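Response to reviewer comment R2.3. The reviewers asked that we include at least one raw input/output pair. We reproduce the pair for Porin family protein here without editing.
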Amino acid sequence: MKKTIIALSTLTALTSFGLSAQQTPDEINQSGIYVGGNYGYLRVEGEDDFDDDKDVWQGILGYKFNTWVAVEGSYIDFGDYGSSLAGAETDGYTLALKGMVPVAGGLSAYAKLGQLWSDTDYRLAGVTTSEDDESLFVGAGLSYAFSPNLLVNAEYVVYDTELDAEAAFDDIDDTNFETDLKQASIGIEYRF
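Raw output as returned:
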């Protein structure tokens, strides 16, 4: 995973430096639609022995209103975590309000606050079931614009999720998990 992240960052940087000229802050901070993708590391922290580390993938669609505010939606795949005896697979959609602050040149800091609508497929000793959930999340990151259209992001997001296996498996005792999903990722953003 680390080699993929390093290769992706290096390729983006070299391409961007070759394509971009000196840009003005007005060019970087224009409003409009953007798309992007993130790849990173997911830490699943919960009660009992349900802790796990996995890759996470995310596709993003957003609209930047001005220099400081954007709204952002995404599809996110948290992957499969747990053990062969008991585990889960979660994916979902997010909607967030994103606040941005230009720092210097093409560097900006941002914070997100939003909602995750997720679907979790549980499995326990060969039995599977599914449950929908809603949870809040908060995140922060840094963004660097190599050109007015191409940016690289690094962010950290915490999803306050309760994956309640007891509701999914009504006939099994002591299976209540309270879980937080913590995501650290890098990504590329393209502004139209």
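The chain is about 15% helix and 65% strand. The longest strand covers residues 86-104. Further pairs are available on request from the corresponding author.
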